[in-house]
Amino acid sequence: MLFGRAPAHAPALIVLFALAGGAEAAEVGGCAVFPEDNAWNVPVDTLPVHERSADYVASIGAEDGLKADFGAGLYEGSPVGIPYVVVPADQARVEIRFAEYDGEEPMASESDPGPYPVPPDAPIEGGAEGTGDRHVIVVQEGDCALYELYKAVPNADGSWNALSAARYDLVENLLRPSGWTSADAAGLPILPGLARAEEVKAGAIRHALRFTAPRTGQAFVWPARHHASQSDDPALPPLGQRFRLKADFDISGFSPENQVILKALQTYGMILADNGSPWFVSGAPDEQWNNDDLAALREVKGSDFEAVDTSSMVSDLDSAAVIAP
Length: 325
Fold this sequence. Notes:
Strand content: 15-25%
Shape: globular
Number of helices: 4
Radius of gyration: 18 Å
C-alpha cells in the first residue's frame, strides 16, 4: 500500500527543539491517542528478543538505512508524510461510498460504514492529485473518535469515496475483528504510529511508530488483525511484528531532534503495518521538520534493530490493552 518517498532536500527550516525530559506526548484534538495501557503506548525495552529476529531483519534488509518517510515542504510536488486533521464536535457528517479505485475492489465488508465527519478539504496523503495510498485521517474533538480512509477521493456533493475505512474510539482498546483490514494493511490505526513534530519539540515520543517492509508473511500477530501477503516463508515477518532499536546503539552523535526519535525506537519500538520500502518510518508532514537533519537517520541500519517477542503483553487477543512488561 505505501509508496515510499525520499524527503525533499529543500532549504531546511531551522527549529530549536527543547529536550524536556519527562514531557508528555502531545494530545491530538484534546484527546489522548488511546489509553496508557494500549499496545502503541507501552514500552517494550525489557521484553525478550524474538527467536526469528535475525531472519526478519535480514528479510527487510540488514544493510538498508532507517528512513523518515515524512518531513517539511514538498517532494515531487507532494507533501511528505501522512497528514491528519482535527475537526470540531459539530463537524457535519457525510456519506462514505466504497467504490473501486484504479482497478482495486472496495473492502466494504471489512469497513465501518459512514457517515463520517470528514470535511471536503481534508488533507490527503500525497496531495489532491496523489496516486499512492491517499490516506485521510480525521480526529473529532469532543467524541474523541478517529476516522481513517484508504484511497480516499472527495466527491462534489461532499461525500467521499474510499476502498476501505475504519472508525476508532480513542478512549477504548478494542481491536477490529480478526481478519479485517482497516485503512492500513495490518488492520491497525495509522494515527498512533505517526511521528509528530510537536512531540519532538516537547522532548519525547511516548508511543511506538509505524513502519513498512518490502516483504511480509501470510500471517499477522497481535495487535494486527490482517495480513497482506501470500507467502508462507517463515523468515518473513508477519504484520504487527514489533521491532526496537538495540539498547546498545549509541544515539549520542545524532542531533537532539533525532535523538528523540531514536530514543522512542529503543523504548517503544515500531510496529510493522504495511508492505513498502525497507525501514520506512511514518510521520505527519510539518514545516517544523528539518529534512536535512532527518536524512541523517539513514546512518541507522537494519542490523541495528531486533524483533521483539511481545507474547507476554497479550491480555486478550481482541483488545489492545496489555499486561505491562
